[in-house]
Specification:
Layout: E1 3-7, H1 12-23, E2 27-32, H2 41-44, E3 49-53, H3 60-64, E4 71-74, H4 87-105, E5 112-118, E6 129-130, H5 141-158, E7 163-169, E8 171-173, H6 180-191, E9 195-197, E10 204-205, E11 207-209, H7 210-222, E12 230-234, E13 241-242, H8 243-254, E14 260-262, E15 274-275, H9 278-283, H10 291-303
Parallel strand pairs: 1-2, 1-4, 2-3, 4-5, 5-7, 6-15, 7-12, 8-11, 9-14
Antiparallel strand pairs: 10-13
Helix pairs in contact: 1-7, 4-5, 6-8, 8-10
The structure holds NADP nicotinamide-adenine-dinucleotide phosphate.
């Protein structure tokens, strides 16, 4: 039986990844600071799941040294949020945690580490489509610290013979993600209030549905033998979408009475974000949904009450 370490197991994406790995009959060691976060009781009681409630920046080796780990999915992160966060917060959550994981890996027989990063590292690219060759130009503390973590993993693990695979996502949407544009549009359209769509509704954005975000991680692990020592993949839905179209689809799917009001007001990111996922499709056999299909699934899950109450501590 293969054993995987999942950091950020209590989080939005980590909790789903843990569920999927357990369904696929792997053993999982999950780490997070909260008592359960988004982890369900079924997962916490699963005999193949070991939950380590601890801070990665604490005594990581002490907590984890008794487990034989084959591969790591490193998802733990300090995410942008409505709280005011400074550089130190992002540094601790994204760089310091990654350095601890690197120290833990040394002298252990771990085959690979998959790191989840963000397309916002490349947000200022001048190419029409972002892809693995786009240059990096982080413009926020979040994207800067994710970029430092990517590079640390590349540099430090190269000499250890451990494969490092970076998966870069745009905004992920899913039932437990109460953040981001899709959630905001959903809430406004449900309330029947007017929905303002900035930048004239004309800019493109990329999104990825939670199930596809998990699937590419699973595909990376199952294709590991064929991957290079260090590799990078952009993930996203099958298509990118104009914001006005996104609002129209959501309004239709929800049967909302809201008016869609196009506004010329500019948001902080005014550029199109279009992602080319050809490399992941070819090498990882990644076959994601369109944004519209993901939205249908998202609405079905939220409306059937499948959102998980977040236990904070
Ligand atoms: N969500 C998106 O739209 C999106 C887009 C692009 C990339 N990503 C990447 O995808 C990954 C997962 O994102 P997510 O949305 O699932 O984020 P999330 O819900 O905030 O989960 C991250 C988890 O990391 C854990 N964590 C942070 N610092 C820790 C520490 N010092 N020790 C132990 N655990 C720690 C947190 O758990 P505790 O609070 O329990 O410690 C949290 O649950 C991240 O790497 C993120 O950068 C996400």
């Amino acid at each position: 039986m293969t054993t995987f370490l999942v950091t950020g197991a209590t989080g939005f994406l980590g909790s789903l990844l843990v569920e999927k790995l357990l369904q696929d009959e792997h053993r999982v060691v999950g780490i997070g600071r909260r008592k359960k976060g988004f982890l369900s009781d079924d997962v916490l009681n699963n005999k193949n799941f070991i939950f380590v409630q601890a801070d990665i920046n604490g005594q990581l080796k002490h907590y984890l040294s008794k487990y034989k780990i084959d591969g790591i999915f490193h998802l733990a992160s300090c995410q942008p949020s409505s709280k005011v966060l400074n550089y130190d917060d992002f540094y601790k959550g994204n760089v310091a945690t990654t350095r601890q994981i690197i120290e833990f890996i040394k002298n252990r027989r771990i085959k690979f580490l998959v790191y989840t990063s963000t397309t916002s590292v490349n947000a200022k690219s001048t190419k029409k489509y972002l892809d693995e060759n786009s240059f990096s130009y982080p413009t926020t503390y979040y994207s800067l610290t994710k970029y430092i973590a990517e590079k640390l993993l590349e540099i430090e693990l190269a000499s250890l013979g451990i494969k490092v695979i970076i998966i870069k996502y745009p905004s992920i949407f899913g039932k437990n993600h109460v953040n981001g544009l899709i959630y905001t549009y959903y809430k406004i359209l449900k309330s029947g209030k007017d929905l303002k769509i900035f930048n004239n509704g004309n800019i493109y954005r990329s999104f990825i549905y939670e199930k596809d975000a998990v699937q590419i991680l699973i595909n990376a692990a199952s294709n590991m033998d064929r991957l290079k020592k260090f590799d990078l993949f952009f993930a996203g839905s099958k298509d990118s979408i104009k914001l006005i179209k996104l609002a129209e689809i959501l309004k239709r799917l929800l049967g909302s009475e809201s008016r869609l009001l196009v506004s010329s007001k500019k948001t902080s990111i005014k550029e199109n974000i279009l992602i080319d996922i050809t490399k992941a499709q070819k090498i990882l056999h990644f076959d994601p949904m369109t944004v519209e299909r993901g939205l249908k699934k998202y609405i079905a899950e939220v409306e059937s009450g499948k959102q998980r109450a977040l236990e904070l501590l």
